[in-house]
Amino acid sequence: MRLTSTEATLFNPDPAAYLPHREPFLYIDRITSLEPGVSATALLQITSDCRVFPPILLLEAMAQLGGIAAGQQDGEGGILAALERAELPPVVKPGERVTVEARIIKGFGKLFLVEGKAGVGGVGIAKATLTLAIGSLLTLHA
After folding, report:
1. Torsions phi, psi of 62, nearest 5?
2. How far is CA 17 from CA 21, 30, 50, 109, 125, in A?
């Protein structure tokens, strides 16, 4: 079920409300849709004063959004456990507004297989399949 614009107030659009990441390690600016356990979409604005935005950071943005889509709870964290079939652009230009998408393909306990995509102006620029481990950081390391 996708949230309608009137239901959009049911989730916090600030990714910092879900993640422990803060500047300069938070790579999504605003969540635009969220269906916990299913998918999420967010925006990343590359500032015009940013001389270089390494495209590899798009993978981190997908992982951060995937953790939010997986529906992590308070006190839980996430670890990028595996990365497959990553395709990245040679460059992400200053001033570009990137749409990041994360869709949960399947979950197995604390592990989630996530399809991540990034695009500019409706054109795909990056994609990857990620495996995330979500849960209490103490139990993930045990």
Report:
1. -65, -40
2. 10, 11, 25, 23, 27
Q: Which two tokens stand for residue 138?
A: 């103490």
The boundaries of the domain holding residue 27 are 8-141
Count of domains forming the chain? 1
Q: φ, ψ for residue 72 (rounded to 5)?
A: -60, 150
Inter-CA distances, 7 with 1, 11, 13, 34, 103, Å = 11, 8, 12, 11, 20
Lowest mean pLDDT among 71-80, 86-95, 126-135: 71-80
- Examine residue 1 and state whether it is found in any structural domain, yes or no: no
Residue 33's nearest CA partner among 60, 61, 72, 7 is 7
pTM higher than 0.70? yes
Using the predicted structure, report yes or no on whether residue 32 has a pLDDT greater than 90.
yes
Instruction: Record the tokens describing residue 60, joined without a space.
Output: 């981190």
CA–CA distance, 76 with 19 (Å, rounded to integer): 9
Evaluate whether 101 touches 117 at the Cβ level (below 8 Å).
Answer: yes
